[in-house]
Design brief:
heterotrimer; A alpha/beta; B alpha+beta; C alpha+beta; A: alpha/beta; six-stranded mixed β-sheet; four-stranded antiparallel β-sheet; 10 strands; B: alpha+beta; 11 helices; elongated
Amino acid sequence: MNDSNGSKNMLSMQNISKIYRTDVVQTHALREFSLEVKEGEFVAVMGPSGSGKTTFLNIAGLLESFDTGIYMLDGEDVSHLSDDGRSRIRNERIGFIFQSFNLIPDLNVFDNVDVPLRYRGLKSADRAKRIQDALETVGLASRMKHLPSQLSGGQQQRVAIARALAGEPRILFADEPTGNLDSLMARQVLDMLESINASGTTIVMVTHDPELARRAHRSVHVLDGQVMDLKAVPDTGGKRDNGKAQA
Amino acid sequence: MEIRPILSAMLRNKTGAILIAVQIALTLAIVCNAVFIIHDRITQMGRPSGMDEENIFIANLSAYKADYVADSAIKTDLDLMRSLPGVVDATYTQSIPLSGGGWSDGATTIADEHPKSTVGMGVYHMDDHALNALGVKLVEGRNFNHDEIVYVDGDKYTTPTQAVISKAFGEKLWPGQDALGKTFYEGTKGINVIGVVDTLEGTWPHWPGFERSVIFPTVLESAYMRVLVRTLPGQRDEVMKEAEKKLGDAHTGNFVRSIHPLAFYRDSTNSGDHAMTVMLSAVTVMILAITALGIVGLASFSVRQRTRQIGTRRALGATRRDIVRYFMTENWLITTMGVLLGSVFAVALNYWLVELYDLPHIAWYYIPVGIVSLWVLGLLAVLGPALKAAAIPPAIATRNV
Amino acid sequence: MFLYNLRLALLSLKRDPVLTLLMVGAVAVGIGMSTTTLAVYHSMSGNPIPQKSGQLFAVQLDNWSPSQPYNDPDDPPTQVTYRDAQNLMHAGKAKHQNASFTSAMVLQTDKPDVKPDLIVARATFDDFFPMFDVPFEYGGPWNKDADQNAEQVVVLDHEYNQKLFGGANSVGKEIILNNRRFRVVGVLKPWAPSPKYYDLENDQFGDPEDMFIPFNLVSGMQLHSNGNNSCWGPPADNSFQGYLNSECVWIQFWAELPTKAEQDDYHQFLDNYVQDQKKLGRFPRPLNNRLNDVTDWLAYNHVVSKDSEALVGLSFMFLAVCMLNTIGLILAKFLRRSGEIGLRRAVGASKAALFRQYLVETGVIGISGGLLGILLGWAGLIGVRHLINSSDHYTHLDWTMVGVSLLLALLSSMLAGIYPAWRVVRIPPAIYLKVQ
């Protein structure tokens, strides 16, 4: 199902609901959440903290399951996958960039980038080439033997990007990718994301920063677990009824 | 599969790994040697004595009347025992088999008043009922005849001229030859071998020559005497009670100062070995438990400390199985380092024990068996924490502290 | 400050009850095992007569066969012959000297309904009592005349005086041994040197004898030793007298020699004696007489069992494993508390103060583990007592051992605590405050 059709949906969520239950409280983290992202798009998902955007990211990135609704990712229904099935898709088709980088402190740069490739069971020569290429892309090929603690924040995030890229994902989820960086480094990282997107990888970026969102093709606003507003993207049907959330 | 990165991650947190590895090394050394000693002792304690051990009891009698006549008292008491229902046979004996106290002497194959070296033997003085009462198997020659039994005052004892010997004693005196009909010597006094029994332990189970025994056809008349009685299977305790009563009522001028099953003497002689095996077993069980708990404890900590890292790995596509495998592999590496070091410790400890005891060196296979056991123990111990790690949700990765 | 640290330690230990239990348990099991094995070793290797162990000497004369030593490589017998015992007693060259052996005897009383009893008596000279500091409850030793004339007198031990006379002063009363009447001259206080150094031939940790009678009764009553009796060569004739004149060894001989000079003199005397005997055709082996004081004698007779030694070694290794275990757990626990450490450092706690705080915490683990360990060790000793002959006197926990175990627990857990505390305190505070 990988034939390149510019208007094919990379991500499609229909009426996704997610409720967190504790003994006393039920929290509707997402309610009737629907969103579509086309292949090759660069979408920013915005919202204040507590709006449900992290839940959205977790569900979209298959880090968490949901209660009701249908989720199609890269043409495949991933709504009812087993834990192993979700692990496989995360590993093969999804790349993650986290706010706090999440590099493994005990491993050097090379080994960090290697982590997802190991789980894919690639041959060692293949892995080495991918790691080399990915680190060259982010300009850190010379730091392979360094430990994360020996790198600056920007460099660490670039290693994380290389780790995401090395797997050649179909879609990249970025969670406040510049949240822990100063503005110069943040700009570098954003430039890098844009160029990755330009080479064809779909990107969904979760942020609360409008400045950042402006770099995306379009922005989606989440409030109270629902998509608020779909703007500036002509070929997406904006037929969601948002009245309830406003109440 | 992913040994190298696990190893390099481990090397950055050496202390915990080293502590566990050294612990495992010491555990291997202790367990291998403890089990080796336990096995050695159990083998020794379980060794067949050649006698019908479970159905024999021994009565110890002492004279107290001034008109006591040893010779008739012995005959009366023995007849009494042999006529008791449930008794297979009874014999006079001067010493108690397996009791740790008895009579020994040195023998040679040629007459020599001052021999340079002798073969040690455990000596039983018994009568013509001895073989049947002990339940030993005669493999060659014959038993003593009734009229060959010599009754002699203890102070006027002389070496007899005939003996029934154990096969092991004959083999030691005349290697590869048939002992029957041959003569061995105590000094210049010759003793003719008229019969050979299969196996017969002496009175000292801890003496290296424990299986070199001879039976002399002599009854030593003194104020003290012993009667060894063999009963039908399962009737020992009843018959023993009856025997004590009958001997007490016999009015032969002596009294029963004690009466015990053969097993009682055997067990008290072995009590040190028994205690040693129990202590060593306790050490073995406890050290394995402590080491396993230590592995569980440290692995739990390491899981808790690496929660975020594990979540990240999961987010990047690791399955639960991958996470379990990671911790298993890590543990296996630590255990392996431990057992490699431990093999050296085990041999060193064994050298010390061999120096201390007359113990053979540890059999080589104890170490590989120990290694495999510790591998299994380590993997079982780490399974719990590893499963806990596998349960860490991947969504941890997007949680920002 | 100490109380504050103690409170912090208890709070911290309460926070992780399972872990605390594991750490205290590991220390306790390690200390318990070491206490049990050390206590056995300690009583086996203990000095049974510390006040004069350097003055009492076991005498060995080498009267053995010309072709073979008594024991390889060239050891003389551990007991002496009747002839030599009498000769050395007559010579009387030492301050005190004593020959003795044990014999089983039939005891009867004047009460006809009481069943006869077999007792173990030590046939000895009166020097035995002052020499070995034997304490008397009533009466005292017999005198030289009683020795000389082989009088039928007896000293009872505490237990038999209880049994026969209900613990009353029985001096002057009579008992029957081997159909002869004996007059009680003394009763001992409870007395049980362990090991039973003056006679290591049988039951080295057993009770002393039930009664004591003059040595010279031996020939008249034809008393036999019920202990070890070793002979080489046949006796001259087949009679009891022949046996007494034989080269069989069965008598323990001791000499009290308070000074170095007396010891040298006595050794010289023994050598001269043997030279004289050689002229009579005895002592065919080269001169090989020995004097060992109590401590050396215990070592020479391997009183400390090899098993006991091996167990002490193994249990110390076991303790090491328990301690490594605890170090690992403490370290992990301390490192996990990095946030708290950083905070304390940030509000001005010095390294030394923090170090003390953590040492108090490990000290608490050590002491509670140690106390629990002593209880376990004591339980272990009861277990050992059940496993072995219960009359043996080497399963007692004395105060020295309690102290040693407690010290061991404290020391080893402090050692176990120092490294983790040092590791944690050494890390700069900045690391702890940084957001992960």
